[in-house]
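Run log, item B.
One chain of 485 residues. Sequence copied directly from the ordering sheet:
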Amino acid sequence: MGVSLTVVSIVVIYLGIMVLIGFAASRKIENNEDFLVAGRKMGPWLLAGSLAATEVGGGSSLGVVEMAYGDWGFSAFWYVTAMAIAFIVLAFIAPHLRRALVKTVPEYFAKRYGKKNGFVTAIIMLLPMVGLTAVQLIASATILSVMTGWSYALSVAVVTVVVAAYSVMGGMFSVVYTDVVQWFFILIGMALIIPFALDYGGGFTELTANIPDEKWSMVDGAGFGTILALVVMYIASFTVGQEAVQRYYSAKDEKAAKNASYITSAVYVIFAFIPAFIGILMYGMVQNGLIDGSIIAEQGARYALPVMAMEVLPPVVVGILFAALISATMSSASSNLLAAGSIFTNDIYHPYIKKSATDKELLKMIRWTMILVSGLSYAIAVFDFANLITLLMFSFTLRAGGAFLPYLIGHFWERATAAGSMASLFLGSITVVLAERGVISFFNLDPIYPALIVSAIAFYSVSLFTSRKNMNKVEDLEEFEVEAK
């Protein structure tokens, strides 16, 4: 009981600090732009900390441990390393994203290709946000339920309330500041488990004696095709992902946006091997009989890391680790909530439902949208126990399949047209769904490949044969923000 009380106390104090940060950040909010993009004042280190914490969520912590313990083995490190590669690419794109001076991805589509494109993009971007948020709630609830003995549904409810509270209060300021704190917890908490696990298992040689050689493969478990698909998926998804690009929109200038990408990539390379190695060590402990693997066999490998922590770590370190894991999941959940609120209010409510809405009314609507998405995500988290990685990859792929190319190329190619963008959005997104359901197959490759191919053909060919009449030029986009002010 003493162990449980110590662990729970640390985590409860941590959760309370997150809410306090949200309350403090709320005092910085003076207008809609402050809430959505932190007044465009963020430097590279704050942005990098926020980007790192945002994308390292349940999939990159619990999910990677789960896959390393299971079929992927040590090659599970590619799940995060692929993100590092994606952010190197994004470093070259980031200045163009910041230069557009918009608040959301659909807003860019509306200004570049027209209102209809903006509306369709908003719908496509909104749908995955609920699933992405639910993934993080599932991961957080898993941790709390193992740690406290609470029911899974109660654990989801607790995390949902905390994340919604600090996110709704402080907006981007709150999300960025909590992200930086959470990132330190993630790195320290995850790293601490390794030396304790090795000591508990009698050292590296003893602990890994019964681990098959194939579990150590750097590629075989995941497979080259999956690794390549991850890289492609992340580049496409992060480029159009509101939770990521909203950070670039918040940068104080283009240089800050670019440097933040480089810093984030370097941090991911360091972090990538930690959860993969933990998953391997957990497998060794179960094989050696040091840990009872029955709960993992009954409930699934997503319980691997919490079970391991409760077995091998002292109470204080367990509390730090669980706070770190909750950090990883909550940082991603809060970013997704803010993204959903931003898109609905900025790109659907304001232009189509209430054009005359005041700045105060828009802020209120953003917050109500975030609360609604929290509720929907809670419902999905309670009833959907899908594999974390699978659900994440589908959500990432859905929003990237049709939107990536018109969004990226639209910054450079003057000939891109509204009709070409619309064709890409519809056909690319539909291809993702059909490929995911097995209705169509493209040499048994991941859905992102046929989606991008269909998107590219539709975008290029339709753009060539349609007119750019009444459309805005790339260089004209910067003028919108000036006129809005």
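Observations after the first pass:
- The chain has one domain: 2-387.
- Residues 478-485 have pLDDT under 50 and may be disordered.
Flagged for discussion on Thursday.
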